[in-house]
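Thread: alpha-1,2-Mannosidase, structure

OP (GT): Posting the sequence first so everyone is looking at the same thing. Length is 428 residues per the record. Can we get the structure tokens written out before standup tomorrow? I want them in the notebook alongside the other entries.
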Amino acid sequence: MFFHGWDNYMQHAYPHDELKPLSCKGLGSNLHSANDVLGDYSLTLVDALDTLALIGTQEQFELAVNKVLADVSFDKNNKVQVFELNIRALGGLLSAHMLASDPSLGHQIENYDGGLLRLAIDLAQRFLPAFKKSKSGIPYPRVNLRHGVPKTETVETCTAGAGSLILEFGVLSRLTGDPQYEEVAKQALYALWDRRSDIDLVGNVINIQTGQWIHTASSTGAGIDSFFEYLLKAYILFGEDEYLEIFETSYDAIKQHILDNTGYLYRNVHMDSGTLMATWIDSLSAFMPGVQVLYGDLEAAIKGHLVFYNIWRQYHALPERFDFYHQTADIHNYPLRPEFVESTYYLYQATKDPFYLHVGEMIMEDLNNRTRLPCGFAGIGDLRTGRLDDRMESFMLSETLKYLYLLFDTDNPMNAVDSNFVFTTGNQ
């Protein structure tokens, strides 16, 4: 499955950012219809480098790295979202750099001179104006890669977007010895945390200049999701207790105010009072069982995973949003997201329960039956009709199919690594 997507991207879309699987063409930036992640830097190639190393041959990995070094530049007059490009491009470059340079990982490239790290530094430097122009330390959500923060850029950003940078920025600081990247990411994280409510919940959207919350709904889903994920994974990766302390305080508040009485549903509640604000859950919150596995709360992880398993069984995919009161989807697309697959992978690694292999088989069959085309895989635009979107987002190769592959490849060295490494819902 991975090479069906990869080969078609390289044949029909490269050097564009993404593959259009219905029309067998590439998708890049469009000034008339701007997209937060598209910027003419061969995003799918960069994002999927580490997956290629894990699944493909050493020769294929080396060829792809050389393509990036020869062709990719971030000196573009394009406006992009810092969060999206951080998790996909910066994360992809750093993961591939470590694989290419560390002989203990089994993918070292002979005569590799650190070019991917230099690209990562260049990209991170282009992100820094988003932090420096903010009064609060919470970064602007978007930058122009060539000119910095546009004068008309919004001052509203979501918690996940501003608070999920510490892994990539922290790794970059450690690889380069330059602390500024980790410092600005940590400052942003603490600026959000310091504005939590009296019941230790954070809101969804904040004004970066005034520090005032604009949207006060708190949940584990869209707009906040990876804020929690990065806290725990930063502790795992860096071993610093401060991240664990914040995560544990947050997790206690989640269990007390967001989790319903059944122990299965994580709701949208008001950050100040914990009162219910909406009766839906979204697909991005499917990451949570995986984080709970890493934290050691297996019982909660199993319960949360079952919710998304049953929704998937109903729709043969995961709708973007599901109303648990009316027991029906109310946003009907599925863009090939990885979060449910990632949680399934972690649960199998922790329990070795063959049920999770069954879940993986179900996902694999539905992806092949509903989204596979001659030119790749297409997101589902409407689960009711089966209408497909002409887009294969880069995370299909870098995440969704990576976790599926590792779920079934039980002998893969990555499943036996005895060291602190993490996967994120952005890359590695």
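GT: Both are above now. Quick notes for whoever picks this up: The two ends are 20 Å apart (CA to CA). The chain has a mean pLDDT of 96.
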